[in-house]
Every structure is written in C-alpha cells, then in structure tokens.
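Person: I have long wanted to understand how a fold can be written as tokens. Underneath my words sits a plain record pairing an amino acid chain with its backbone structure tokens. Those tokens are not coordinates but codes from a learned vocabulary of shapes. I should like you to check that the lines agree and flag anything odd. The protein I mean follows directly.
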Amino acid sequence: MSERSYSFSRDRRTFLKAGVAVGGGLVIDFALRLALRPALAQVVTSPAFAPNAFIRIDPQNVVTLVMPMVEMGQGIYTAMAMLLAEELEVGLEQVRLEHAPPDDALYANSIFQSQTTGDSASIRAFWVPLRQAGAVARTLLIEAAAKQWDVDIDTCRAQRGAVLHAASSRRLAYGELVDAAAALPVPARDSVVLKRPEDFTLIGTPVKRLDAPDKVDGRTEFGIDVRLPGLKVAAIAISPVLGGRPRSVNEAAARAIKGVRQIVMIDEAVAVVADHTWAAKKGLKAAAIQWDDGPNARVDSAGIIRQLEEASKQPGVVARNEGDAEKALAGAAQRIDAIYQLPLLAHAAMEPMNCTVHYRKDACDIWVGTQVPTRTQDMVAEMTGLPKEAIKIHNHFLGGGFGRRLEPDGNLLAVKIARHVTGPVKIVWSREEDIRHDLYRPYYYDRLSAGLDTNGAPVAWTHRVSGSSILARWLPPAFQNGLDSDAVQTAVDPPYAFPNFHVDYVRVEPPGIQTTWWRGIGAAHNVFVVESFIDELAHAAKRDPLTYRKALMTNPRALGVLALAAEKAGWGKPLPARWGCGISVQFAFGTYLSQVAEVEVTPDGSIKVHRIVCAADCGIVINPDTIAAQVEGGTLFGLTAVLYGAITLKNGRVEQGNFHDYRPMRMNEAPVIETHLVKSAESPGGFGEAPTAAVAPAVTNAIFAATGTRIRTLPIDTALLKSSA
C-alpha cells in the first residue's frame, strides 16, 4: 500500500466594497481581474469582467467563505480557506464554507472566465484575490478597534480572530467590531500590504482537511445523498448505441412491480420512476427494453483506429514551427520514427452520475454535484425556455469529477425526465450506465520523427497529434483556425530545446462516441508521448536517459525537479534482473514535476511497480499534506490507466461496464510513493492533474530499462513482456 511521505528540498486592480450583513456583520465583496485580459487591468470593467467572491464575518466571530469553486476531493476548500485565514489572521476552525450559487458575474474563475472548477486552476486563479480580501478585512477591523480605543492604528495588531493593543492589554474579537468596520471607508485593494512568504504562519503548513471529519462519519452530502419531501427515484436506461432510440418497452410488466409509479420515455432513454431505488431498478429490468440502434450500430474500435491512422498521414494545422524540421530530418545522421497510441478512457468516478430535479411550469430546482453550475443553468434555460433566474442550482460535494462533471449532459437528461414527473425526482445512473454512457478521453494517434547528429544530439523533432477536438464542441471560440490547444498541450512546449521543431494537429471525430476532458487533459496524453520518445532518442544515442535530458534543458526549475527526483530515487543504483528505473519530466498547469518509477517485470510479463519518487516545484506550497495526497491520488489514477485503462466498442456498444472489466488498481498493487517539494517563492501552480500525466512515461521507460521492450501503445500489453528464456 502507498505510504504518505513528503519532504521539502531547498533550493490588477480590483474593486472592493464592504457592507453590513443581514442581522449585523461585515461583508467583503471582492472582484478578480481576469488574468487573460491584462489590458483591462487599468480600468474597472463591467461585471462580466469582474467575477466576485464573498467573505462574511458575523457578530459571533464566524468567518464565512462563499466558495466559488467546488470540492471534489482535491482539497480546495481547505486550501482556499487557508489563503483567506492567513491574511485575515483567524484560525481555520473559525472559517465556515458555503457553496456558491451559479453566477459568472460574481464567481468566475479568471482562467476560464466562467464559474468552472478544473484544469488545476483554482489556486492559480484565487491566490491573490483571496489573500487581498482577507487583508482588507483585517485592515478594517484593526482600524475599527483603534478608533474605539482612540489609539494609533499602528499600535494595534490582529491575532487569532481578534484585535490586540499590547500597551493596554486590551482585546476585541472580530465579532465585536464587524458593524463598526463595515461603516469605514474601504482601502484600495492594491494599497493593503500582503504578508511576505517568510511571515506566513498557516500557508505552507500541513493542515488537516476541513472536510475530512464530516466525510469520515458520513455527514457530508454528495449529490447522490439528496433527500427531499415527496422524493421519487428513477432508474434509467440509455440507448446502448449513441443515436439509438427505444423501440419497445413492456410498460405493463414494469408497472406491475410494487412501488413503480411511472414510466418515462424520451428520445434516447427510458426511466422508471418509483418510490425507492430497488423498485425503480426492478421495474427497469421488467420493462425489457428493445432498442433501435440507429446509424452507429456498426461502429467498432478497429474502425476508429483505422480512421485515425489514415487521417494522421496528412499534414495538420501547425501548432508550432521553428526552423526547418523536414530539411534537418533529411540531413540527419540518424532518423527515428514512432507511432504512439492512447485509448479512449472513462472517468469512473466513485459517485455515479446522478441529479435530482423538481420541475414546475415556472421554475426548476436542481440538486447536483457539478463542476460547471453556470453552464448547467444556461443549458437548462435554453432547453426549457425558462429564464435563468427561475433555475436554481443547489451544488454539492462531488464524489469524484476528473472532468466528467464538466459536462451537463446528465443534468439535462434528468430535467427532460423531471418535466414528466410531478414533484422532485432523483435520477441515478447504474455503474454500467455511468461507464457505457460516459464522454471519454479521446483516442490519440501520434506520429513522431526525430533526427540525430553524429553525436546523438537531436537536430529535428516533429510531432503530429491526431484525435478528437474537445474545444471545438465545448468552447467553440477557443477552437481557432482548426487548432485545439488542449490536444497539443505540453507537446508544443516540451522542456527541451530543439533547433528545428514542428508540431501539428489533425482533427478526427470518431463516429458513435463522444469525447471530453479527463484528468490531466492534454498533458496526460502528450507527456507520455514526448517523454517516451525522448527516451527513445537517448537509447539511440547510447546515452543515459537522465544525462541526455539534462543536456537538452535550460530551465533551472525543470532541471531542479529532474535532478531531485533522480537523487531521491538513487538513479543509477544496481537493480535485480528484469527491474528497471524510468524517468519523466514536465511543465504543466504552472508546475514543474519529475517522476522516477522503479518497476519489476516478471518472466510471465506481469508488472509490479514497486516505487514512485516524485519531485515537484509548484511555487509556494499552500498545504504540503494536500500536495502529497494529490501526488498519491493522481499517480494511482494515471497508473490505473497505464496498466488497465481502455474503453473499446463493438457493434456500436461500449464493451466495458463495471470495475471487473474497467478495473482500477487494487490496494495490494499500489507502490510506495514519495513526494519531494522544492521550496520556492514563485506564485503557486496547479497540481491536482500534474502527477497523472507524469507517471505513464516513467513506468513505460522503466519497463524498457528492464526488458528492452518499448511500450508505444497504452494500456500495456503484458504479452509483449513475456520472457523468451
């Protein structure tokens, strides 16, 4: 089982207002200038460019942070509360959290310009604004105390939710000052002085998760836990083939099940509504649904791969070009060509898709755990014709997101069903429906070529990415000139310097399948490809993979994590036969990260990953314990995909359906995972997805070191690794 281990290694302008809360108290309303729009930093713009979050302090000394982002296991509720508490000078035990309602004008993440949780972006987006909000509130409270005591403000200080005057030993809790503070003129946000990193007392410490106690004893309410008066439950069957429709339903048999109240048929699905889950499931089975599969009945994985293979032979949209890679390839002393393939992947979150809806002719309430509350609200409004203000999203903790809950498809389906039901109804997908009707990580088919000089140094690098475009569907304005920036993420900016460099992208949309983001997004695909191929070049040059990488790198932070991971892993140490070490390095989500995997391949081809050593430079660390947890969780998530993950199709149907055939790693398979953090004064980078991207090439490069077999297609085919001895 994985051990928790981590260590440190040494080396806009906004508007803000205060007000009195209902019932008394101080409210701080702060606006975040968009990081993507630096030209706007000198002007106060409309609400569309000034998303807000809210801090509230009541007379009982309770600090409430209305959380614009959602908690799905990544620890963001604790980390963001730490940012506020650090500058406000309160203990975390005083901070209470509330889910924010959907409102892009108030709560947008500046990186997305919408209220979206993903891309490891929450800390990056709110690192400065949350601390500034805390500092402004602290300044107002100190000023209010100084006025009440009639003393110089500089003789007062804040500590643990109170203002102190040392000379007179006087003390006032924040709750006693909030009304007076709310009446004071608010200082400009940029005028307040934030703490220096060396003065932090909370940020950088291993704080226990605020949400952990309630999760341990079962008090946390996820979307699937919603209970309402008069609630009915619906089990759902969706057409097993995309684009199919129900042909026949045995309604009489379904209604004969005790507790079944209603059968709802819509274009692509059938729902059985009942008093409780068991009746709904039995009724759905009794319905004996027959399907018209529609135009995608013959789609299979082999056909999707052939389509990608053919499309990848044609030039794509240029993502980056430097020098003349084709000319350099033609004149190279040695040329290496490779094709890498990564499969469709499901998200398989622990909490299956679910949504509770109470639909009336003039209003719609939705209880759900979603990464995109405003997107959901907008799409429900468009589908139903209801005004946005009539659609209330009650967001909840997520039992896993991984990108799946960036999609509102399940919520829209629930609303379609709820329009036929009187009163609230909870629609819960079975595990089989969840896996077979996912939106999947695209299948990628990548062609790479490199040219080496007589010393083995690369003189040319070309990389063609072929696959579905998520951006073209999800955010059309970002899909410019046929280029999907996510599909080529980290491929266009590897940590290496090449004199001649070319990356292009070919959009290929597979039939009968829908695609979306998956944990690690573009990096989870391209880091595997780039770090595997650079390993191939090192082998062709007869150089040590670590030494070869170092020679091509100039960024000191990238070099730092690479050297640290290698040092902590004992790179170059003797290993038993059919054991190997592999390494990877990357820059993604604003974080530099390197992993070393120590892997054993048995004679029958079985793989045992014994140890993963991770070194990371993510800038200022908010909570090192959360970082270590993310390294462990993200690594295991990625390792599961490396060893087992693949969604395949036959006759238009997804063949996998539950954890027996779309299996996660087992506890006994988990390696020891070590985390080593570089101390840094840089602004924080994102982290939740970075380890997921790093682990695949570290493991497959270790397999090559152990066996001499290069893995270019995932998941690993262990038949290729059997010993011939």
